[in-house]
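Hi all, long-time lurker, first post. I run a small reading group and we've been trying to get comfortable going from sequence to structure in the token notation. Rather than ask abstract questions, I figured I'd post a concrete chain and ask someone more experienced to write out its structure so we can walk through it together at our next meeting. Sequence below, copied exactly:
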Amino acid sequence: MKKEQKESELEQLPGVGVATVEKLHQAGYRDLISVAVASPSELVELTGMGLAPIKKIINVARSSVKLDFRTGEEYQEKRAKVQRITTGSKAFDSLLGGGIETGAITECFGEFGSGKTQLAHLLSVRCQLLENEKEPISVYIDTENTFRPERIRQLSKGAGLDEEAVLKSIRVARAYNSDHQMLLVEKIGELISEKKLNVRLIVVDSLTAHFRAEFIGRGTLADRQQKLNKHMHTLMKLADVYNLCVYVTNQVMAKPDMFFGDPTQAIGGHIVAHASTYRVYLRKGRKGSKVAKLVDSPDLPEGEASFFVTTSGLKDAE
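-- Answer (accepted) --
Happy to help. Here is the structure in token form:
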């Protein structure tokens, strides 16, 4: 019933027929607000319509929806709906203000073996521990063939959860290139609105692997960053609209011109840095431990937490 209502809303826009509505749906535009905030060039490319009628459509959509400012009090009420997926480590959860937050993008970057993918598996399992959620679903987009059902079973057992039930709650898709990766993320809206799945977590592991492999050399940097920026904003919109948690892992590179301090730097530059709500640097610690450093946050202080990755989950370091 809800879907039919939103289709009729779009069809009432000038020059928008059934075929155009279908194109808009496939691109993730399902209601007036999504059209109202879209850019004209993007809709021209998606629908094949001219610029003038597209601008008219957008103006009508903007006049039909409420695009007002909220008071700080209203925004505080929205923030009251935020949930957190705990990691099982008290120190790590405390660093993050209670866990990985919904309505936000949390980026973890670090070298291989620092625990990024382990955390991705762990969150996919512990998503089931969210309170007052009926059949929570995790969507895991795997770009490097690192998803392992066996690890999900181990972590489920460690959390006291039914292994089969947790495996059924995870939707896994292997992305073979950056375009495929972006398309998979855009399709998540359909899982929520059409298939009525209660998606509470999106994992992208890793965010930049395909972009790094496909765009080589400084001459392609602008195109890569523009594409990556669009991808991050799609994730940001999903997190905000559906109040779900987005966790992305990121690769790193070494800065050869840095003589003091840690030369490790995340891939993606300012685009990924600005789009991520929380940034966590993971590195190897002493005696096999892992260290998480909160690099950036809107409201939390910088700090570090040490923990061990065990068969059953995370364990605080002494």
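A couple of things your group might point at:
The two ends are 55 Å apart (CA to CA).
The chain has a mean pLDDT of 90.
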